[in-house]
Specification:
The protein has helices at residues 4-13, 47-55, 69-76, 88-97, 133-142, 175-185, 215-224; strands at residues 21-25, 28-33, 59-63, 80-85, 102-104, 114-119, 144-155, 193-200, 203-204, 208-211, 228-234, 239-245. With 246 residues, the protein is an alpha/beta fold. Helix 4 (88-97) links the parallel strand 4 (80-85) and strand 5. Helix 1 packs parallel to helix 4 (88-97).
């Protein structure tokens, strides 16, 4: 990992903002990820993120904290926060912005317990691949205090595929059948399992796996390991916020 994401955040934080991050996937073209968006305040966050922050309580783990925008707002609300990220640059930026408790760490390396675990900006992406979802959920379950909760968002990216249901009433289409057809369009892999590419100032990061889970698949994975999964709300573009608990 070259940590181009962290370098970009540091450039913006240090007043050296000249370019945005460029992202793409194996099924989408290049697109800009504006650096100012990663430093947004609460009022500029999507309603889905605002709702997630409003539901946070107790000791909160902000997993994949990035520049620390979510942690900073929660701190101002008086909550005790721990912010972690695999990006060294992101952690340095979050700390310099005022996040009090930070650590460069992968989620699977975390061992403390929390009242709320927050995974936002397509939080299921951190699972990387469908066959790793159960392992991640089991670990998250082990990090929950009694009556704890996981707040996670994701997107159902079926809209990104050239796929039309033959059935006139799409509500009658079986979920498993639809997923199977979409998987065929993604070389047999789960259709939300993508290769993710990032570049910054002409340099390419090493490719990574990124996972977009539809709600039914997430809910089924939770049920398989004894977790409950509720949809809290739908976002504005095929995204959703879910609450997971024991």
């Amino acid at each position: 990992m070259k940590d181009l994401f962290g370098k970009a955040l540091q450039d913006y934080q240090n007043g050296n903002y000249t370019e945005d991050l460029i992202t793409s996937t194996n099924i989408s073209d290049k697109d800009k990820l504006p650096l100012p968006y990663l430093f947004r305040g609460y009022n500029d966050m999507p309603k889905l993120e605002q709702k997630a922050l409003q539901l946070c309580q107790g000791y909160v783990l902000d997993a994949g904290c990035g520049a620390g925008s979510h942690s900073l707002w929660l701190q101002k609300c008086g909550l005790h926060i721990k912010a972690i990220d695999v990006s060294k640059g992101a952690i340095e930026v979050a700390k310099s912005r005022g996040v009090l408790n930070t650590e460069q760490k992968a989620l699977l390396a975390e061992s403390e317990t929390f009242d709320t675990i927050l995974l936002l900006m397509n939080g299921t992406g951190i699972f990387q691949k469908l066959d790793q979802v159960s392992d991640y959920l089991k670990h998250l379950k082990s990090l929950l205090k009694t009556d704890g909760q996981i707040l996670i968002d994701s997107s159902d990216i079926c809209y990104m595929y050239d796929f039309e249901d033959e059935d006139e009433d799409e509500d009658e289409v079986e979920h498993e059948d639809e997923v199977e057809k979409l998987n065929q369009l993604n070389n047999g892999n789960y259709y939300g399992e993508l290769d993710y590419y990032l570049s910054y100032k002409g340099e390419n990061e090493y490719p990574m796996k990124w996972l977009y889970l539809d709600f039914k698949t997430l809910s089924k994975a939770c049920q398989s390991i004894g977790l409950k999964c509720e949809k809290v709300m739908d976002g504005e573009h095929f995204d959703f916020l879910a609450k997971i608990y024991v």
